[in-house]
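Protocol step 4 of 5: obtain the predicted structure for the target chain.
Materials: sequence only (see below). No template structures provided, no constraints applied. The aim of this step is simply to have a reference model before the mutagenesis design in step 5. Sequence pasted as it appears in the construct record:
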Amino acid sequence: MRSTPEVEDLLRRNAPQVLGALVRRYGHFDAAEDAVQEALLAAAGQWPSEGVPGNPRGWLIKVAARRLTDALRSEEARRRREERAAALTPRDAFTAPPPGERAPREDDTLSLLFLCCHPDLTPPAQIALTLRAVGGLTTAEIARAYLVPEATMAQRISRAKQKVRGVRFGRPDRWEQRLPSVLQTLYLIFNEGYTATSGTALQRPDLAGEAVRLTRTVHRLLPDDCEAAGLLALMLLTDARRDARSGPRGELIPLDEQDRDRWDKAAIEEGVALVTRALSRGRPGPYPLRAAIAAVHDEAPSPEATDWVEILGLYDVLVGLVPGPVERLNRAVAVAMVHGPRAGLSELDALSGTLKGHRLDAVRGHLLERAGEPEAARAAYESAAAQTLSLPEQRYLLARAARLKG
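Step 4 output (structure tokens):
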């Protein structure tokens, strides 16, 4: 019998905590992950017909632990029979907990995130390992999301696992210093899902949704962390516009042309509540500030009613904390909306040579168009279109350029 959506959702939610429990007790990240996958496959085959057990997480841990110890015994038997028993004894005795009790510790998922975002790993490796170990995505799914061959992604994940082999499982001693890497990894995953950097699709909703789910988990485990709350708010407020961002043929629809009735009001309400609480706890950090900007956009009933003065003030504070080229580019748009396109173009001039990709020329084309320079705007749009690897963005930019011809 095929697995039902309800069972698949239950398995996905439990998988990282089951993996965390095995890694915490036995080590052997690679072998533990394989054992968890076998347990998940067994559950997907049995539960739809036999029913979900009273303690599904405990059931998964029991089955996975049995598979893991069998695999480790088989491996060790080929090496050193006399030392097998000592080498394979878990660090503490484990039995599946009775129904109603927590199986692993609640922060096992967070510990997995810290492990996947180890500072020795590159950002692409952190993303891949997070999606594999914590998100539960297959290597093929991750490869498709990032438009690379499955073999390439498999090598990336394998190298990442090798680098974290032997790393103590659990929250690092100075875990607060690792948290920004965790949040940044989740933010990068969300951004790739919300606006794909390449390919035929504008968005990859499954990837964005996974980032929201994992960030919600971090916020639940660290409810007093303002940056985690701010990141979750930012994702919700941004993803709320997803259905209105593309037309029936997948074409890009810019923010000021979207049908705001199609925005997700429940997500906006939750995001606004989260960012309001985060901002009330003291000096805001980058994620609450970004979320506050998104909230101003989402709460405006129309493009004309958007409070650009407030947005510019928020960007002034954000750029003071994070003076990166993307933040400064977005601030230049706010400057143009408050002080006119010429002022925004002056801000862009200072970014030349510091921002890679098509976005600088795309914004330049928009501001030149508003400033009444159609030929220069057309050239900027065409330059931006030539640089992007996203077909929907390319078509949109070329359409803007074509509209200005003659």
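Step 4 remarks: The longest strand covers residues 198-199. The CA atoms of residues 4 and 43 lie 11 Å apart.
Proceed to step 5.
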